[in-house]
Each structure stands twice: as C-alpha cells, then as structure tokens.
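Researcher: For the annotation table, I need structure tokens for Glyoxalase/Bleomycin resistance protein/Dihydroxybiphenyl dioxygenase. Please keep the output clean. Sequence:
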Amino acid sequence: MTVTVDFDAPADQVKSPAILAHVVLRTANFKEMVNFYKTFLGASAAYENDFLSFLTYDEEHHRIALLCVPGTGPKVPTSSGLEHIAFAYEKLEDLALAYRQRKAKGILPVWSVNHGPTTSIYYKDPDGNMLETQVDNFDVPDDATKFMMSKDFEVNPFGTDFEPEDLIKRLRAGEDEKSIKKRIESGPRGIPDL
C-alpha cells in the first residue's frame, strides 16, 4: 500500500471527521436509561452487560452507549457540558409519527418549537439529558444558514412554539410540508427555561 498523504504538510484547518459516530452517557440509572433509549430510538443492543450497553438503530454498530460507573451522582442541570443530543428525521410526517409512538409509550415532549432551520420536538431522558428530534425546514443546508443570518433569527434565535397535535392535524388535512415548516415570527424571545 502506498501512502499518498503528506502528514507533514502545513494546513490552515484540521481535517474534519466524516461523521459523529456515537455518544456515551454516564449514568447511575443504568436499567432505566437502557430501557428508555431502546424505546425512544427504537434501538436494540449490539452488546450489553450489567454496566455497559451499546445501542444501535441504523447502519452504525452503536450510536448511543450507556455506562454505569460506581459513584456517579445526579445530573446538575446548571453545570457546563452537553446541552442536548439531536436526532434527525427525513420527513415531517416521520417526526410526527415518532412523537405519537413515543406518546403512546408514555414519553412526552418538554418543548416543541420551530427554530426556523428545523422543526423540533424535545424530550428529557430519565437522567434529565435533553434530546431533540428534528426535521430540516430547508431542502438545502445553505438556505438554513441564510435564515440563521437573517434579521428574524437575530431577533429570535430560539424559535416559535407549536403543539405537535396541531402539526398532525395540518398534515392530515393535506397542508403542504413547506407551509407547515415555515416559522411564524413571534418577535424577541429569551432563553427558554426547560
């Protein structure tokens, strides 16, 4: 095999990874967290024992891992660290269907919001970690970036709340996804207290 990379060449920027492979969550509530994530993601265990679980729901061998470490304390919501993990759906109807399926299993959202770039439904896991489920509102990523550079986004970078059941009614009525995904401007908004 011939190496074609010049490892000593100067670069202005570090080579970006191909994908975000997985997230590992440390927990003291191992069984409850494993059951939650299996249900929440429609996931299965690629490997699991009494203190470690590798969960998969797509082509990757694991996307979420849960690790029970002795001495782990409860999450401190006001500490620095990860704010949320986001999971994307391809279509608005898939986001709505997953919401309904979770609701039927007792998993209810804590916040539903049209951010502008995405339509998002947020949940909390048993440890209090925030999870975002979302669908892109723009077909082209550059259009989402343009929206984030707009005056509307500067005034309100958090978005406009919506009711998931209303979203389902609009989908059932045959309303075009583009009109449902268009953010209704609501003026200035501070950081939500979730």
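Researcher: And a one-line annotation?
Model: The first helix runs from residue 30 to 41.
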